[in-house]
Design a protein that fits this description.
The chain has three helices and no strands. With 70 residues, the chain is mostly helical.
């Protein structure tokens, strides 16, 4: 099954069986990318500096991409 990253880069890679949302581990990695590796602090001022805000935004973005490739 293709992952969302491949579908984002090349829509034809998506094919009809794209998962509704990427695997949990992939969403966690995307959310953790907002953590400053030097300080360990979350840096997401536009998302309220909360991990819930970051997760919600990642899910929203993923849903938008999937909607465009359907």
């Amino acid at each position: 099954m293709p992952d969302i990253s491949a579908a984002q880069l090349q829509p034809s890679a998506g094919q009809p069986n794209i998962p509704y949302r990427p695997a949990c581990s992939q969403m966690q990695a995307r959310s953790r990318s907002f953590i400053d590796p030097h300080t360990g602090n979350l840096y997401a001022p536009g998302l309220g500096n909360t991990m819930d805000g970051v997760r919600y935004d990642q899910l929203r973005r993923t849903d938008e991409v999937l909607e465009q490739i359907r």
